[in-house]
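Task card 7
Instruction: Convert sequence to structure tokens.
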Amino acid sequence: MESNFHLETSRKGHEYHINLHGVFDGASAFELLEAIQQGEKQGLTMFIDTTHLREALPFGQTILEFHLPRDSNRQKLNFTGLRAEAILPKGCRFLDDYHKKGHKCTGDCKNCRCRRQAKAKNNITHKAS
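Output:
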């Protein structure tokens, strides 16, 4: 059976880059989990690029979310690319054009995801009062 997915990894200093290609499904999620585990063992910050994914199936995201350990440092997992939000596990970072590495967000960016999250938290706090 021919695989519709492959990933490429590279290391640059303290960064571990994982580029995803093809169709992201359940089996692909397990391959990605294995690559993430390798980066975690070395304490590296990881950048997962989804630009070259043709499709991201919901089952792949479910597998990734369920099997990525809760005690892992999810803040060191940075997802980029067109399909990043489709596979993004909770607690991991989504880096869009405005939130690239090194960006210190003040919440003033156009379409700022950080501002939307803060606003949602404030709405929940105000409703609970």
